[in-house]
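Board notes (copied after class):
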Amino acid sequence: MNTTKMSLTTSTPTPATSTTTPTARESARPARTSPTADRGVLGDVIGFRPSATLGRELFAIAINIVIVLAVAIAVQPPVLACIVGGVIVAAILAARLAAGFATEGYAEQLKGGR
């Protein structure tokens, strides 16, 4: 009677540490400074922080205006509510644009820098 057990798995040695240098592709990747460095278009549209570039911020403002108008047309609130809501949204978008000029350097982008 054969009592030897056979193993179906084979073990391969794995290196504990890698001593290889990074490849050209790995070293060409820029290091991200934060996980929210590039939020994407949706993050620009619905986020409270200004976008990274002035163009993306203007696009986000335009999309926000379209969304507010679409909701106003669908809901059809009284005119006074539309005016008050429009003023509130305009103030938020203007503050976000001003914050972008202060923190993201939109003025430099207009001059051709960055």
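Comment from the instructor: The chain is about 55% helix and 0% strand. The two ends are 80 Å apart (CA to CA).
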